[in-house]
Design brief:
The protein is α+β, with helices and mostly antiparallel strands and 177 residues long. The chain has three helices and seven strands; from the N terminus they run αβββββββαα. The structure holds nickel (II) ion.
């Protein structure tokens, strides 16, 4: 299970909507998912979408607070008002999650406004249906990863000062070798 190279912002694959997987049981899909788990774990990520490793297919993996899995051809049903910012334990304290991305290096973070609840459906690599109900951080992770499959990055969802700060940080990354 090789660790794959994580594509960084500026790479067109991150901005290209991914295609549906035609045969989820294809052994190449199984291998890709195993490699994505290895890559996500190596990077200490909580989610990874196939376009982030250069593959334009609708697949992502996640590992959030004890929930771990992979989904092929995901659909998300969102509920609750948008404008929710997930919270998690940090250093023993309940804190707002500063959303980031393995494809956006450097000090560029949220918070990003999300829906508080999500129901994820799709199939696994044996073709069996998957259904995961999620809230809080896991729900936000699912929204972040499905965004990747549509060519959207979390920075696109920042507003106001947060967006200006992020753009400034990204410009300084571009000029740093
Ligand atoms: Ni990401």
């Amino acid at each position: 299970m090789p660790v794959l190279t994580i594509r960084q912002i500026g790479d067109p694959v991150l901005r290209t909507p991914a295609s549906a997987v035609q045969d989820p049981t294809d052994s190449r899909i199984r291998t890709l998912i195993a490699d994505m788990f290895a890559t996500m774990d190596h990077a200490s990520g909580i989610g990874l979408a196939a376009p982030q490793v250069g593959i334009g297919l609708r697949i992502f993996t996640w590992d959030v607070e004890g929930s771990r899995g992979a989904v092929i051809n995901p659909q998300l049903e969102l509920s609750g008002p948008p404008g929710f910012v997930p919270r998690a334990e940090a250093d023993g304290q309940d804190a707002v999650v500063r959303e980031g991305c393995l494809s956006v290096r450097g000090p560029v973070h949220g918070p990003v406004s999300r829906h508080p609840h999500a129901v994820l459906t799709g199939v696994d690599e044996t073709g069996q249906p998957i259904r995961e109900e999620a809230e809080n951080l896991l729900a936000a992770c699912f929204q972040h990863e499905v965004d990747h499959l549509d060519g959207t990055l979390f920075i696109d969802r920042l507003t106001g000062d947060r967006r200006r700060e992020a753009m400034r940080a990204l410009r300084s990354l571009e000029t740093t070798p």
